[in-house]
Amino acid sequence: MRRALVIRHVPVEGVAGFRAPIEAAGFAIERADVTDPGFPDVDLTAPDLVVMMGGPMGVYETAAHPWIADHVRRLADRLAADRPTLGVCLGAQMMAAALGARVYPGGRQEVGFAPVALHPVAAETPLRHLTGLPMLHWHGDTFDLPAGTELLASTEAYRHQAFRRGPNVLALQFHAEMGEDPRFDSWLQKWPEALSAAGHTVAAMRESHAVHGPNAVAAGRLMIAEWLEGLRH
């Protein structure tokens, strides 16, 4: 059985709705937290699939989070080998950094459910399953588009929402994995300042999650299932 390594930067941001398609594609899922004592020794090139999830820290906050620089360096080795890699939110930002792009504060919080606008090239990619559906956004950082990648999606607030490099590398700024996971309530409790900055309330976000979450995560699963089917090993 192929091995998928899910890297968590905080416990409340796990693989969530992506677990089902990853397992259905024949991967045995293992998990590594960046706070694990053995994480610096994990060979990121070895797993058949690496999935990097989100987190509240910025890629540039290396003084506060000393593990970031080494994580990005090891990720760069994996990407140089063109090993199948998926990044979500912070994970996508780390992929951008590992590919040589700048990651920086975007100047505003993009929080809440809203559709992503797909670029023409995305019509023939797994992202087409997301067309017109509100996805969960929860970030304030952004990145320059790495050289050699294709921009797949944008929003009014942030142009760089998704990119790919060939069939094996996919980065998603938004959270297509979230829509049914109970850990969403932990996000509301842990980061209320992000809600306030974006003009939302906890009650309104819970309502949006109930209305849009099931369709969002269902489309996210279709997207990931198709992406996994097209991997080149």
Strand order of the largest sheet: 2-1-3-4-10-9-8-6
Q: What does the average pLDDT come to?
A: 96
Order of helices and strands: EHEEHEHEEEEEEHHH
Helix content: 25-40%
Instruction: Based on Cα principal axes, name the global outline.
Output: globular
Number of strands: 10
Low-confidence stretches: none
End-to-end gap: 14 Å
Q: What is the CATH top level name?
A: Alpha Beta
CATH homologous superfamily (4th level) name: Class I glutamine amidotransferase (GATase) domain
- Count of all domains: 1
Please characterize this protein's 3D structure.
- By secondary structure, the chain is of the alpha/beta class.
- The protein contains six helices and ten strands, in the order E-H-E-E-H-E-H-E-E-E-E-E-E-H-H-H.
- It has helices at residues 19-24, 67-80, 90-98, 184-190, 192-197, 202-229, and strands at 2-8, 27-33, 49-52, 85-88, 103-114, 117-118, 135-143, 150-154, 162-165, 169-172.
- The strands form two sheets. The protein has an eight-stranded mixed β-sheet. Strands 5-7 form a two-stranded antiparallel ribbon.
What brief labels describe this structure?
globular; alpha/beta; 6 helices; 233 residues
Write the layout of secondary structure elements.
Elements: E1 2-8, H1 19-24, E2 27-33, E3 49-52, H2 67-80, E4 85-88, H3 90-98, E5 103-114, E6 117-118, E7 135-143, E8 150-154, E9 162-165, E10 169-172, H4 184-190, H5 192-197, H6 202-229
Parallel strand pairs: 1-2, 1-3, 3-4, 4-10
Antiparallel strand pairs: 5-7, 6-8, 8-9, 9-10
Helix pairs in contact: 2-3
